[in-house]
Design brief:
By secondary structure, this protein is an alpha/beta fold. About 40% of the residues lie in helices and about 20% in strands. The termini are far apart.
């Protein structure tokens, strides 16, 4: 079964270019030309990934991303932006996007980026191909099931974006080690991000909001000043 991609852009030339190349790569493509239409499509059917332009009529890409995450739609989002603007990129990631690509781009680059994201998140894989082992990693009150892409805290489901999940899993698998921002960037994002280490800080902040009892005094993810971050086994008070 083909993996389903929703492409959202108000430029007809971009829609045509992406639709053709993604279909040639074996994806099932649905398109939308404004933010409201994108929300409707995402609500009506399941997609394995959403390619979302930042500048859209009716509702911009940032608002679309924000509303999808508020509705607990955790589909990976690759955001497109024509602006070389750090604020827009970081804000998009803060609102729940998993990755971004700056225009102009080559169709081959988009396809490669989408495949990399899908490989990491394993979304769109038929159920019969998914491993359903009960492998579990526990740290403090957090239980992680890597094979099922599920996280629980105090036995309640924790809603993470695919990128947040990958970052959490990497930190836990390297528990006790100091990891620099560049190490995390290269390991989790899997390609050179031209030194955009603020992206790591954004996702660390998101994880802390979701797993730390007190974000001002983190017990799981410690900041090692001047170096990076370290995941520790927490000492929790009853």
């Amino acid at each position: 079964m083909s993996q389903k991609i929703l492409v959202v852009d108000d430029e007809e030339s971009i829609i045509t270019l992406l639709e053709f190349n993604l279909e040639q790569a074996g994806f099932d493509v649905t398109t939308a030309t404004n933010g409201r239409a994108a929300l409707e499509e995402a609500a009506e059917q399941h997609f394995d990934l959403i390619v979302l332009d930042l500048m859209l009529p009716e509702m911009d890409g940032l608002e679309v991303c924000k509303q999808l995450r508020q509705r607990k739609v955790m589909t990976p989002i690759l955001m497109l932006t024509a602006k070389d603007d750090e604020f827009d990129k970081v804000l998009g990631l803060e609102l729940g996007a998993d990755d971004y690509l700056t225009k102009p781009f080559s169709p081959r680059e988009v396809v490669a980026r989408i495949r990399a994201i899908l490989r990491r998140t394993r979304t769109g894989m038929p159920e019969k191909e998914k491993v359903k082992e009960e492998k579990k990693i526990t740290i403090g009150e957090v239980d992680i099931y890597p094979d099922n892409y599920e996280v629980f805290i105090r036995n309640k489901v924790l809603e993470l974006t695919p990128k947040e999940f990958e970052l959490l899993l990497y930190l836990v698998n390297h528990k006790g080690r100091v990891l620099t921002r560049d190490q995390l960037l290269n390991a989790v994002w899997n390609y050179e991000f031209v030194g955009d280490t603020r992206i790591v800080d954004v996702h660390i902040s998101h994880l802390r909001e979701k797993i730390e009892p007190n974000t001002k005094k983190p017990v799981y993810i410690k900041t090692i000043r001047g170096l990076g971050y370290k995941m520790e086994e927490p000492v929790l008070n009853d």
